[in-house]
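tool=predict chain=A
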Amino acid sequence: MIPKYRTALDKGVFPDRIQKAKQMLENCTLCPRQCRVNRLEEETGTCSTGSRAVVASFGSHFGEEPPLVGKSGSGTIFLAFCNLLCCFCQNHEISHDGEGEETEPERIASVMIHLEQIGCRNINFVTPTHVVPQLLEAIETAAKS
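tool=predict ok
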């Protein structure tokens, strides 16, 4: 089995997808809230996120179904400022309060590689909708490694 990110890298689809996703940040419609702020100019809407993803934490997570976690866990990267803002969220400090640090795609890529090196079976982004462009850049960078 060839991972989809390797196939996408081989086909050269990342640059076009990243460009299209980043264009959506200029008049942000990445999530159903469609705030239409210019996140490239650090304006923020419902998600309170500008041009960089905010990473709260990462690590090997065992709270998923056994086929997903295996012996080494699911490589989970928690992203701050979820746009859903559910009142019952178990990750309130991260999703509502924005606990974490603004992180460049290259750093996210290195985290992904680290999680792979410690044996994680997959990379699990929680909750990624509002930072898809930044994650696409990170995935492309990690795939090239």
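The mean pLDDT is 94. The longest strand covers residues 53-61.
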